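Researcher: Structure prediction, please.
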Amino acid sequence: MKRNDITLAPMTEAHVLQVALIERQCFSLPWTEACIAKELTNPLSLWLIAADGETVAGYVGSQTVLGEADIMNVAVAPGYRRQGIAEALLRGLEDALRKDGVYSLTLEVRPSNEAAIELYHKLGYREVGRRPGYYHRPREDALILRKEWEV
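Model: Predicted structure follows.
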């Protein structure tokens, strides 16, 4: 089911607490509120949220250096999953980065996260490597996925 009432927007300070809550719900080693808030002043960072009214349903964060961006985090709150929100966030991020002259986007994902891998492949990301022992709790390698486009 796709949600048409979800809007994408740049993350602001007003969103940090909800983003941090989603981090804690989704990751075994979540970013702290302070780390998330610091991204707001990082000139290399672009973070977008998906909003359902005043509620943050999901978010994606990236950092860009010399035309290449890395996804730092992407997550959707448990009650909002399987509604097309992650796809909308990723497409929105790609569009915003493309406008800034970025030509590639890279991310790491757990091999066990089959739903995420399926989405990334659908969006044109391809495996370019592996980072042994990258994740903790539980210990797992990371697949490195990358997407490139013309600017």
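Model: Residues 7-148 form a domain with the Aminopeptidase fold (CATH 3.40.630.30).
Researcher: Thanks, that helps.
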